[in-house]
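Please check this chain.
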Amino acid sequence: MKHIHILGICGTFMGSLAQLAKALGYRVTGSDVNVYPPMSTQLRAAGIEIFEGWGLEQLKPAPDMVVVGNVISRGNPVMEAILNQMLPYTSGPQWLAEHVLQGRWVMAVAGTHGKTTTASMLACMLENADMAPGFLIGGVPLNFDVSARLGDSDFFVIEADEYDSAFFDKRSKFVHYRPHTLVMNNLEYDHADIFPDLAAIERQFHHVVRTVPQHGLLVYPAKDEALKRVLAMGQWTPEHTTGEGGLWQARNVAADGSAFDVCFDGAMVGRVCWGLTGAHNVNNALAAMAAARHVGVEPNIACEALCSFSSVKRRMERLACVKGVTVYDDFAHHPTAIKTTLEGLRAQVGDAAITAVIEPRSNTMKQGIHQQTLIDACDDASRVCWFQPAEQGWSLQALIDDRHPQHACFDSMAALLENLVKKAKPNEHIVIMSNGGFGGIHQRLIQQLDH
């Protein structure tokens, strides 16, 4: 039995890769500095040994292959030992491409926003059509309750991230996947820690477009100017467009996005009534349906799947309702994501109070790249509570002036929690928005509201 060791195993991508490797029959071990549930629990339940920290004992005996996560950089003690001992190593995307994706019909979902949700929808559509897809998704689809599985067919759905592969491979992850069906949901500037501007990201998107075969399919929104520039660099594959002016459109859309008709090439092909809200999720659904049809899933079957779709953990996940106060967890990482989420909730709850609790934690927001658009992104919230950690290099408070009395900034978790509990009132909706753990604020707030 071959042994692979994974550095950075508790990230969503690497942890999911570990479980796929285990299912393929490998002996799998790994290490990380942040070993905590739910990923650590999933890994240990799968029989995967985890080392906490970067002790060199994890390389004894030497593994057959080390899979290096993109959180690892030169200077890491284990990585330096790997290089000095000339042990074989590879990136996560490269290993996945060679051992899981090779020979399969890969359906990749890329874009700045909505990758996890759209990939989850697509996997559910194929499952509803009895196609037993494999998948690796950067979250846990509630319809499956796992983030990855090998599947029992040629089809494999993957969330295709544009972030770099490893410190020794600066290509975007998705370049390794070689999809037959490629969804590009949207494209905005993000990942300011590795991309200097939007044009650099567009170039990476074109790299993956160049790998899609002539009998493949490109799916993208008809009005996205950045994606138009990507395709203007060269296109060799048929396309299906979505949204306004597209081949796939939503009509008779409910105000909150909870119901809509699906039209393909001018003809109505189905209706969706579901538990999700927001125009962004309607657009995600159209993209997933276009991709599913490419592999034979009829629109009526896809609509059935959407009607029973239960979303994804941490995507407007309703955690609790305590004394009339509803608490949600949302994986917001960009002003556009914040804006579309709050718009969808406002359309759903009408005049009820909405409090947005936001930690600008993504690398792009930490650098202050989008700070000018952050305040406007929260227009649909009644109140906004910003959390500013001490290490952040720019001031959230400086964005708030007399025109924004509903905004407040906190540098203490205790003070933030005290304020939320003190001002909470029945029929209020509190949305906690962060792409990290946010200091466990979710359960702490629920407990304090309850007491």
Q: What stands out?
A: The CA atoms of residues 306 and 415 lie 41 Å apart.
